[in-house]
Amino acid sequence: MQLPSEIEARYLLPSLRAYIAKKLILEKGYTQEKAAKAMGLTQAAVSNYLRGVRGFKIDLEGNLEISKYIEEIVEMVCNNVPAEEITKKLNELLVYIRKKGILCNLHKTVEPILNTKKCGVCKE
Questions:
Q1: Please, are residues 88 and 69 in contact by the beta-carbon 8 Å criterion?
Q2: Residue 40, C-beta contacts closer than 8 angstroms, at least 6 positions apart
Q3: H helical segments located in 27-63
Q4: Own/partner long-range contacts of 81-84 (Cβ < 8 Å, ≥24 apart)
């Protein structure tokens, strides 16, 4: 049995980072190196995100609210907002994902035996 925090770390955070990196590079004109530095990652990690090797296990772009959060985070990165504020916004997004049951759906995909209707740990 995996904890929700394990699901976040293994699947959700890489997908969010991939989404942010993709927007920085494709929409804001960042190089892989610049995006990596801005995000505190290596260029190799960003390259893997762009190639789909890491971070695209779940589709986040189809969710309008998640897209709004990501857009805000991308703008914060572009405007050199302090890392603490960006971290706070990213954590708000994680809380939203937990409260809306999106993490539960991902958890169920990873662990099909999990009864997400009875669980509710993420929403507490």
A1: no
A2: 83
A3: 32-39, 43-51
A4: 83/40
Sorted by where each begins, the domain ranges of the chain are 4-117
Closest CA to 97 of 47, 58, 56: 58
Q: What's this model's pTM, rounded to 2 decimal places?
A: 0.88
pLDDT tens for the chain, 124 residues long, are 888 889 899 889 999 999 999 999 999 999 999 999 999 999 999 999 998 887 656 777 788 999 999 999 999 999 999 999 999 999 999 999 999 988 888 888 888 888 777 777 776 6
The answer to whether 20 touches 70, Cβ cutoff 8 Å, is yes
Contact in structure between 48 and 54 (CB atoms under 8 Å):
yes
Within the chain, residue ranges assigned H as helices are 4-7, 13-26, 32-39, 43-51, 64-78, 83-99, 102-110, 116-119
Residue 83 to residue 39: CA distance in whole angstroms: 9
Q: Which two tokens stand for residue 47?
A: 């390259």
